[in-house]
């Protein structure tokens, strides 16, 4: 199977991992969670980044769907921050 470059987990057939991440996001306190518009904008930015491979950011090793959910998180690419 070919690796999915610049895909989010739901596009890379990683349904179990995505389900687990969504459950963890649901449990985040409201004060720590980014609003839906910010979250979706961040994911769009990640999808246009060459460091995204199959839902994982190669700059930091995180699942972008999880990192983007935190209001205080930033894009880990310190030289070319996307959000």
Spell out the key features of this protein.
single chain; 83 residues; mainly alpha; 2 strands
Describe the structure.
The protein is mainly alpha-helical. The protein has one domain (9-67). The protein is 34% helix and 5% strand. The protein contains 3 helices and 2 strands; from the N terminus they run H-H-E-E-H. It has helices spanning 15-26, 36-47, 64-67; strands spanning 52-53, 56-57. A two-stranded antiparallel ribbon has the order 1-2. A hairpin with a 2-residue loop joins strand 1 (52-53) and strand 2 (56-57). The chain is globular, with a radius of gyration of 12 Å. The chain starts with 14 loop residues before the first helix and ends in a 16-residue tail after the last helix. The mean pLDDT is 90.
Q: Can you summarize the main beta sheet?
A: 2 strands, antiparallel
Any idea what the radius of gyration is? Answer: 12 Å
Topology as a string of helices (H) and strands (E)? HHEEH
What's the arrangement of strands in the largest beta sheet? 1-2
Number of helices: 3
Helix content: 25-40%
Give the rounded overall mean pLDDT. 90
Question: What distance separates the N and C termini?
Answer: 31 Å
E-strand count: 2
Helix vs. strand class: mainly alpha
